[in-house]
Predict the structure.
Amino acid sequence: MKYKVNENCIGCGLCPSVCPNVFHMTDEGTAEAIEEEVAAEDEAAAEEAKDGCPVSAIESE
Ligand code: SF4
């Protein structure tokens, strides 16, 4: 699974706190996901971050 943060992100900071191995905040104040395939052990936390995003800004494929 790969994750992407779209332009809806409001920079609430939730996803990096839930899943720091996949998400981080950029200098622009919004979140960004790693470009690589997410490691199996990080998938549960990444899904939790996606489900918890208040503006549904996290997409997966
Ligand atoms: S949880 Fe959603 S709104 Fe909050 S920083 Fe992450 S992508 Fe942005």
